[in-house]
């Protein structure tokens, strides 16, 4: 669900977001090679934080197999954040 929500947010704005809260519920199981539908959608916004809902459904009867609610925030990394804290003396 985390990967689907990431893809949903990236497709909406092209910015990288990280999950800050995840709530998932599993209602049923699937068999190996069974086809499922996966849907991710933006459900709300509060400042920079976005809410995403992910649903996984059985393809034939559209029964909901799993559902996830995620809160996501933009990843704010710059080049200065990627430099090591301590430089090697070698």
Automatic annotation (TrEMBL):
Keyword Cell wall biogenesis/degradation listed: no
Transmembrane segments: none
Keywords (A to Z) from UniProt: Hydrolase
Gene3D superfamilies the UniProt entry points to: Hotdog Thioesterase
Domain of life (superkingdom): Eukaryota
Any GO MF annotation of the entry: fatty acyl-CoA hydrolase activity
Domain Thioesterase: residue ranges: 1-64
Record flagged with keyword Metal-binding: no
Regions annotated as coiled coil: none
Family statement drawn from the similarity comment of this UniProt entry: Belongs to the thioesterase PaaI family.
Protein name according to UniProt: Thioesterase domain-containing protein
Organism: Thlaspi arvense (Field penny-cress)
Organism lineage: Eukaryota, Viridiplantae, Streptophyta, Embryophyta, Tracheophyta
């Amino acid at each position: 669900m985390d990967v689907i929500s990431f893809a949903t947010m990236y497709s909406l704005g092209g910015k990288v977001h990280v999950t800050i809260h995840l709530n998932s519920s599993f209602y049923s199981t699937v068999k190996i090679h069974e086809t499922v539908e996966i849907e991710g959608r933006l459900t709300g916004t509060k400042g920079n934080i976005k809410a995403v809902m992910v649903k996984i459904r059985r393809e034939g009867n559209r029964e909901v197999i799993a559902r996830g609610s995620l809160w996501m925030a933009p990843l704010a990394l710059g080049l200065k954040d990627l430099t090591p804290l301590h430089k090697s003396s070698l």
